[in-house]
Amino acid sequence: MAYKQAILIRQDLQLPKGKAVSQGAHAAVEAVLRSDKDVVKAWRQEGMKKIVLKVKDLKELEYYNQEAKDMKMITALITDAGKTTVEPGTVTCFAIGPENEEKLDKLISTLKLY
Q: Structure pTM?
């Protein structure tokens, strides 16, 4: 079985590249920490495939987060501390997985690359 992680970042916030990367990294790490150790081990052995995608706003981000949870996928939603670019408590992005690649692709196939 092949595994992949997806990171979805809000476009409406127009985050500077560095901020978007750091928020995506927070989501990726948190999702891995919440994941099954055997899944993470297999994913690491496969090269830790991941994809970064864009969602238009908070509503779309919340939709995909809930859909992933409904499909029993591990997610990590990131809320910013608000010390630099956005207001405290702003939800910036979330990550899914690592997860079965086929299952994940069914959910995210219509989204565009970040």
A: 0.95
